[in-house]
Specification:
about 100 residues, alpha+beta, single chain, zinc, Znf_RING/FYVE/PHD, elongated, FYVE-type domain-containing protein
Length: about 100
């Protein structure tokens, strides 16, 4: 059964599932792409730090915060932290607002 899987990868996947099932709450829904043209944290256009202003570039430059679900730019989502309340124990992308929240 495990001949095509490394044992540690299989165990890591089981731990992720276990942690998700133990979570005290579910993560919030994500804000859909193309519903905002500006970052929900800093209000800057998503392409503020890009060399291209195309729609495709704007789509590449927007990200969802894993903690609050907001749609944020690259600059406002550079930080990563674990979210044990959602069963996520590895660092994931979060917005600056959630990263600095006490």
């Amino acid at each position: 059964m495990l001949s095509d899987h490394l044992g540690r990868n299989y165990l890591a996947a089981l731990r992720i599932v276990r942690d998700a099932r133990k979570a005290s709450s579910a993560p919030p829904p994500w804000v859909c792409f193309n519903t905002h043209t500006r970052c929900m944290c800093c209000e800057a256009p998503f392409t503020w730090n890009s060399t291209s202003q195309s729609e495709a570039q704007a789509n590449r430059d927007q990200h969802n915060c894993r903690s609050c679900g907001w749609l944020v730019c690259d600059g406002c989502s550079e930080k990563r932290k674990p979210l044990p309340e959602y069963g996520i124990n590895t660092p994931v992308r979060v917005c600056d607002k959630c990263f600095y929240k006490a």
